[in-house]
Amino acid sequence: MKTGLISDKQMICLMTLFLLGTSVASGINRNAKQDIWLTLLAAAIAIIPILLIYARLTSLFPGKSITEILFGTFGKLFGWIVTFIFFIYCFQHCVLILTSFIDMVSIIALQKTPKIITGLIIMILCAYTTRKNINVLSRGSLFLFVFIISIIIITTVLLVDKLDFANLMPMLSIDSGTFISSALHFFSFPFAESIVLLSIVGFLSKETKMYRVFMIGLAITVVLLLISILRNLLTLGPTTYSELYSPSNIAVSVINIGDFFQRIEALIESTLIFCVFVKICICLYASCVSAAKLFGVSDHNSLVYPFSLLITVLSVIVFTSSIDIEYYTNHFYIWQLPVQVGLPIILWITAEIRNRICKAKGKDLAVSG
Fold it and tell me: What's the rounded Cα separation, in Å, for the pair 52 and 205?
C-alpha cells in the first residue's frame, strides 16, 4: 500500500466525518431522553482503550491495512476466516448506512421520489469517488470538515435564545439498565465503527502517530455530537426529542430572524449528505479491498460498481420502513461488538506475542508478517 497519500489532518477530518455519519442529523439513542448527553460521554470514555489498541496495531504494522494485518498475524486459513467476517461487517454496514440515509431523505424531503433512485444517485457518486482512490476523498474532507463544523456552530448560536436548560432536569432520572444500554449503543454506533478506518491507515505516513490522530478525532467528534444533541434537547425538550426521527431538522426549523432568515433545515440535510457520503465511501472501499484480498482479485476497483449496485438493491428490500431500521439499530447493535471489540483485542494480543517472538529472533514483525 502506498504510504503518505493521507496527511494527519486529513485523517482526523475523515475520522470525524465518518463517525458523525447519520448521527449528526438523526435522533439516535433517544430512550435516554435528557440523560443522553451523559451516556454519550460514558461511551466516549469507554472507547478510548479500543482506539489505543487500534493505534498500537498500526504501530506494529506500519503502512499496512487491516486485511494485511489479519493475514500477517493469523496466517492464511484463520486470516481468511477473520477477514471474511470483517468483510461482512463492512458490507452490511454500508447497506445499513445507505438505508438510513434513503429513509431519512424520503421522510424529510423527497417523499414522492422512489427510494431506489435516491440510493442510486448517492451510490454512483460514492462509487466514482472510491475508484478515484482514497486520497481524493481525503483532500475533499478538509472542506467538508470546515463546512459541517460551521453549520453546527451557526445553527446553535442562532438558537441560543430558545435554549431552555431546564430541559436537562432531572439528571440521571433513567434507570441503570437504560443508561448502560444507551451508552453501549453510542459505544457501538458510532464510536466502535472506527475499526473500518483501519482499512485506510496504510495510506498514512509510517511516521504518523496514530494515538494522536485517534484521540483528536474522537475529541472533535464528541464535542460536535454533544453540541448537536444539547442544541436539539434544550430546544425541543426531552419528550419531544425522544419522539422525533430527525430532531435536528425540527430544532433548526424554529430559527426565524426578522421573517427573512428562516427555513434553513437544508443546512442540516446538507451535513447529513456530506457525512453519509464520506462514510459510505470508506465502508465501500473497505468492503472491496477485503473481498479482493479474500478471493484473489488483483484490482479491488473492479468490485466497486458491482458492490455499489448490490448495496443499493439490498438497502431498498432488506428494510421496508424506518421502524425496521430503528428496531435493528436499537436491538441488534450488540452482535457487532465481537467484531468491533473482540476482534481487535484478539488481534492485538496475538500480534504482541508474535512481536516478542520476532524480536527474540532478530526479525521485524511487519516484514515477517
Answer: 18
